[in-house]
Write a structure and sequence with these properties.
4 strands, four-stranded antiparallel beta sheet
């Protein structure tokens, strides 16, 4: 089974967040974590909730290492245990309902 976590990290008082988010993306790349960057947050897919929360904590702490004095992090967790689902599956399921069978 897998866990999908969406998180938003905001170093408060900063106008531009791109350098902070770039650092998070590099962290995810180094760890080999499957992720999707969106305009408003980052989504990761990990085997366990524990692993996902560790990654979010590491990203949160990295903001302080980059000089932030205060950081706000919001987390949303999709932990489905009855079947294995991927990020793409969730999107595909919705689009199939929107567009129907196109064959």
């Amino acid at each position: 089974m897998g866990v999908i976590i969406e998180f938003v990290i905001v170093p408060l008082g900063e106008l531009s967040l791109s350098k902070y988010i770039a650092h998070v993306v590099k962290l995810l790349e180094e760890k080999g974590v499957k992720y999707q960057l969106t305009p408003m947050g980052t989504i990761i897919e990990v085997p366990t909730l524990r692993e996902g929360l560790r990654i979010v904590e590491e990203a949160h702490e990295a903001m302080f290492a980059l000089g932030a004095k205060r950081v706000s992090t919001t987390i949303r967790i999709d932990d489905r245990r009855d079947k294995d689902r991927k990020m793409e599956d969730k999107v595909k399921s919705v689009l199939e309902k929107v567009w129907g069978d196109q064959d």
